Amino acid sequence: MRTKMRTKKSGFTLVEILIVVVILGILAAIVIPQFTDAASQANESALASNLQAVRGQIELYKIQHNDNLPTLTITEAMTNKTYADGTIGDGNGSYDRYMREIPVNPFNNLNDVVEAATTPAAATNGTGWFFNTTDGDFLANDLINGEHHWGQ
User: Fold this and answer.
1) Is 110 exposed, middle or buried (0-12, 13-18, 19+ CB in 10 A)?
2) Which tens digits make up the pLDDT trace of 36-91?
3) Degrees to nearest 5, angle at CA 10 with 3 and 24
4) Is there a contact between 90 and 81 (Cβ–Cβ < 8 Å)?
5) DSSP 111
6) What CA–CA distance (Å, rounded) separates 121 from 139?
7) Could you tell me which residues are beta bridge partners of residue 141?
8) What is the chain's Cα-based Rg?
9) What pTM value is reported for the model?
10) Short-list 133, 130, 129, 81, CA closest to 103
11) Distance CA 52, CA 23 (A)
């Protein structure tokens, strides 16, 4: 007498697949906020680094230009060769440029600089940085909760 043997089909059941999907969902819920936090910290670190770099170059400009702030726009003064009197130089007897370009503000991806004699209470849209032409303060325009603020 021959008995019929049942062949077992291999594969996953619906319950097994659902359990795996639930576990992956839980892991994603734990891991994703960690990446969001890391991105925010990276922006803050990049902002601090950019501010330090620009402020350092402004101080170097002042040292080389008899303790005077730029008479040109800050972008022109930092990215062009200049003479000791603050005018744009041609390379002969002039100081080399201080930066290739004004860095991008990591909070709004802009490198525009607004210049004024007093620090504004609130920033305008489309502005990355602010330069106070009176005291040489260089600040970042960072977007916080939908409002622009002049951050340090």
Assistant:
1) middle
2) 777 788 888 898 899 999 999 999 999 999 999 998 999 999 999 999 888 998 87
3) 155
4) yes
5) -
6) 12
7) 150
8) 28
9) 0.71
10) 129
11) 44
